[in-house]
Amino acid sequence: MNSRPVRVRIAPSPTGDPHVGTAYIGLFNMIFARQNGGSFVLRIEDTDQTRSTKESEEAIYRSLRWVGLTWDEGPDVGGPFGPYRQSERTEIYQTHCAKLLESQHAYRCFCSADRLERLREEQRRMKLPTKYDGRCRELAAEEVSSRTQSGDPFVIRLKTPDDGITVVNDLLRGEIQYENTQIDDQVLLKSDGFPTYHLANVVDDHLMEITHVIRAEEWIPSTPKHIMLYNAFGWEQPTFIHMPLLRNADRSKISKRKNPVSLEFFRKAGFLPEAMLNFLAMMGWSMPNDQEKFCLDEMRSQFSWDRMSLSGPVFNLEKLEWLNGLYLRELPVNDLKARILAEVFREELVTEVVKLIQERMRRLDEFVPLSSFFFTTDVQTPVEQLVPKGMDKKLAHRVIRDLSEHLDNVTSWKSGNIEAVLRAYVDSHDDVNIKQVFMLSRIVATGRSASPPLFETMEAMGKALCQDRFRRALATLRP
Ligand code: GLU
């Protein structure tokens, strides 16, 4: 067992909209740290340079703060183990990787992307697990140095043991064994000198003196690779705790196709942060007396890992609404009013909406009917309306599905970027025209065939609300 002071972390990658799963894992990390007088670290894992964005990083801070998480160390608050953003630690990973080369735990691999692709294809055809065949493991030292000197691109791979097993010891699950021959010679450093997730994650957890790695179940298959790295470096392993995945009602892994998953959506839909955290605390964990409504202090005083159940907790929206209702109804009226003004009628949103609808107003009280769809998630558009003239149900479904996927990837939710997605879609599809696609998008987003200018409207509504409208429309049209 670990006798060092408890230090835990969450390590989100800033590649999209902050996910409810991040808040879930963050909550358990924070409670465990607080219960043990330890530290809770937020580390930004932005080694994927092409997918990481500043907007997403900012949204992570904003959403996690809103839901009520507080961290002791992180890129935004500093701390003694910084920098806490992996893109600022590249040299640290390179130095550590060089040590593994020196101790012969790692090797340079010069295989081309082409060769690796052919290898994978061959393995797939033979129904073998796809993994590197180790060709560059045995290169002679002279060849390695001459190819390195002549500037041949290479990656650095870990030399996994040829035989034996690696045991993952998970606090909740016990021992999980892996045959070493099943494990790939993972890439540690890419040819551009940037680290992979595995290397950066292990080096940072070690240097940041993390004692307990508490993360989602989906990372279990990476853990034997991490353990091999700890062994190669000669470092002590942290305690591993893999939390159950949140699930949709049909037991599949929670996904944005079936459920809202972005924290921004829950905020927009008017969930109270205290209800959110209470609900997330019940995902797999329960109070000793099975009490359902409890606050963070109560959770902390009762928390223990042996009350975790591993049978995938269902993220049940109705239950969340029920709980949220309990919290809402006990708020003093003035407090509730203040929250409605702050969250539903947010000052900047109201200003944007007034600007957008002014042109269509004849009386002040028309503000309410003209703008209601900006302020509520409760818009349900009937099938007939979702199929505009010149389209059939199947085509409308396909267009909405495709557009929602493209819109998911818009990181900077600005009218120009939204418009570009719609126009690019029309340009690359012969069976739809611009008028149809704009009309369909308007109906899906606003529930109406007449609205203020579409792209500005979608920008003001915000991404989370727009995505929810697309998800609802798809559910309504599902073939
Ligand atoms: N960057 C990983 C993520 O996006 C971190 C996983 C871990 O906690 O090790 O969740």
Q: What is this entry, summarized?
A:
The chain is mainly alpha-helical and 479 residues long.
Q: Termini, distance in Å?
A: 54 Å
List the helices and strands in order.
EHEHHEHHEEEEHEHEHHHHHHHHHHHHH
The helix/strand class is mainly alpha
The major pleated sheet works out as: 3 strands, antiparallel
The helix content is 40-55%
Level-1 CATH class name of the largest domain: Alpha Beta
- The protein's oligomeric status is single chain
Number of helices: 20
Number of strands: 9
Spatial order of the strands in the main sheet?
Answer: 3-4-7
**In one word, what is the shape?**
globular
Mean pLDDT: 94
- Unreliable residue runs: none
Write out the distinct hetero groups bound to the structure: glutamic acid
CATH homologous superfamily placement of the largest domain? HUPs
Beta-strand content estimate: 5-15%
Please give the domain count.
Answer: 3
What does this entry look like structurally?
- With 479 residues, the protein is mainly alpha-helical.
- Helix content is 47%, strand content 9%.
- The chain contains 20 helices and nine strands.
- Strand 5 and strand 6 form a beta hairpin.
- Helix 16 runs antiparallel to helix 20 (463-477).
- The longest helix has 16 residues, at 20-35.
- It starts with 6 loop residues before the first strand and ends with a helix.
- The structure holds glutamic acid.
- Residues 11-13, 45, 201, 215, 219 line the site of glutamic acid (GLU).
Features:
Glutamyl-tRNA Synthetase, domain 3; about 475 residues; binds glutamic acid; 20 helices; Rossmann fold; Arc Repressor Mutant, subunit A
